[in-house]
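User: I've been trying to design a sequence by hand for this structure and keep getting stuck. Would you show me what you'd pick, starting by listing the structure so we're on the same page?

Assistant: Good idea, let's start from the same input. This is the structure you sent:
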């Protein structure tokens, strides 16, 4: 089984995919093809994606029973964790800036004689 989920792709690419696969919902394509056809579709999508993003998932002989790849800019990125491929979320740029600013302000307030230092935990004396 091959599943392709698209977002913000050009109409010509959407039309191309609909020639090969069945579009069951807007931007969701399914079909049953070999690895060779999947690789050809992957290359075509990569060459024509522009600003959109795509996830391609297919049946595989592994622990989870499937594998997937992402193409284009997205906050979701695949990561390997203990032999499984999972999804990690990248922070959006605005929230990352806010976290960095708030982290810097808290770092600058820590120092000798500060009440925050008295509440901190010292791990150097911990035993095994």
């Amino acid at each position: 089984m091959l599943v392709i989920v698209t977002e913000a792709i050009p109409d010509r690419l959407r039309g191309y995919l609909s020639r090969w696969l069945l579009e069951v919902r807007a931007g969701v394509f399914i079909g049953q093809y070999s690895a060779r056809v999947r690789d050809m579709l992957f290359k075509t999508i990569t060459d024509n994606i522009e600003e959109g993003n795509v996830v391609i998932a297919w049946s595989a002989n592994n622990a989870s029973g499937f594998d997937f790849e992402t193409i284009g800019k997205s906050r979701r990125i695949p990561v390997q964790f203990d032999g499984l491929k999972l999804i990690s979320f990248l922070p959006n740029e605005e929230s990352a800036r806010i976290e960095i600013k708030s982290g810097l302000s808290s770092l600058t307030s820590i120092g000798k004689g500060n009440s925050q230092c008295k509440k901190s935990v010292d791990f150097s004396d911990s035993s095994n």
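That's my pick for every position. To get oriented when you compare it with your attempt: The chain has four helices and seven strands. The domain at 2-111 is CATH 3.30.70.240 (Alpha-Beta Plaits).
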